[in-house]
Amino acid sequence: MSSDTLSSGQLSLVGISSAALAAFREAVLAARDQDYWQAIQYYGEALQFQQTPDEFRARLFEYRGQCFWLVGEFRAAEKDYNESLTTSDSPEQISRAHVRLGEMADFQGEYGRAEKLFRQALQEGVTAENLLVIGRARRGLGIVHRRQGNTEKALSHLTQALTAVRQAGEMREQGRVLISLGRTHQARGDYQLALNAYGEARTILENLHDRWRIAQVINYIGECHQALYDIEVALTHHQEALRMTTELDAVILTPEIKRNVGIDLVETGQYEAGLMYLQASLEGARELGNREYEAYSLYHLGRVYTVHEDYEQAGRGIDALYKVADMLDADRFRALAAFARGELLFHEERRVEAMAELNVAMLAAQTAVDRGILWKLHATMSHVADNAAIAAVHRTIAADFIRQTAEPLEDPRLKATFLHAPPVLAVLQAARIDPDSL
After folding, report:
1. How far is CA 355 from CA 116, 347, 349, in A?
2. Is-contact 95 124, C-beta < 8 A?
3. Most buried pick, 46, 107, 187, 291, via CB within 10 A?
4. Buried b / exposed e across 128-150, counting CB within 10 Å, b at 16+?
5. Does the structural domain 211-282 have CATH classification 1.25.40.10?
6. pLDDT digits (tens, 9 = 90+) for 164-219
7. Residue ranges of the alpha helices (H) in 188-330?
8. Where are the domains of the chain?
9. How far apart are CA 338 and CA 357, in angstroms?
10. CA–CA separation, 183 vs 143, rounded Å?
11. By three-state DSSP, how is residue 110 classified?
């Protein structure tokens, strides 16, 4: 059972009035139904009762803070998390609050602060032998390491997180960790492993009727198909995810999904419609203050403007991407910014400057970028290089990354779709490789 339920034994209900308890029960039910505004109201009612134990009040603040976070009210969420931290001197509650504050910092792109909070919570969880806190803290550390480009460390923490939450019998937390594992595999270009993790997460979340996270998973499954040029399937997933988030008013998921719909539409030749979604994604990311969402939207807008020869707009977007990458202090986004600028300079026939920028991207990309970006980067460098031998080396490397991407794919249709996609096929043909031999 989840430790967030009344029957878990994790939260003592001794000394709580029947009226406060009734409000609390209504809040828990509303949150389970993902009616977060209603839950916020009930948690507020329960907090009106002053003569309740400190640990109970602290948990009310934590739960209400989580609801505020899920509806995008970040200041209110942080305020409640801090109240949860200071209301009770219970080690368990303090560690839980540290995890929640870490998740807030991570979402806002403050990776250093997030890592510090997660490490503190992990130490507290280990001391208290609290599997839930250990699992959540390790999940948080895994996410931070993935964002910073260290996917090996990320996988280590996430694997340990999954063990902890499974030992604790925490089904929803298992779903959350599996999503994070999928994201990490995806960040390495291991799309089959990502799809496996997302499939397992989806089964768990559907059993829990967790529509909010089901929409999240459907979006990420779509991203894998998008990366493999299976655009029609990707668009179907992204439109379904957008429909669900619109129904749920899941504002913190919407910019990411709109970005993906925009990418899919551009890929299918619907340039104006795609651009509209990409711009809406950027606006939504900035409204939320999510720098990672903002960086990805700027990257894709820059590339779309470049391909469609709107170089002035592309340049502005890429300049903005560099600034966000510096704020995030993450090599992944520095690599993406340099790659986008290198492509732009190449399109502008400024080959020497383009190669210098692509070399910057290559240095930043060594550990921080997935194979899905690396093969494109090497393919571009093969076109930009003046030296035929160097160009051939880049083509060979690009083809090898394509092979590593394709070989693990279990679905023959998906594999063939990827290998016969025009950008992939162009690399394989230049390297004199038969796509059907892979």
Report:
1. 38, 12, 11
2. yes
3. 46
4. eebbbbbbbbbbbbbbbbbbbbb
5. yes
6. 999 999 999 999 999 999 999 999 999 999 999 999 999 999 999 999 999 999 99
7. 191-207, 211-227, 231-248, 254-267, 271-288, 291-307, 311-328
8. 211-282
9. 6
10. 9
11. coil
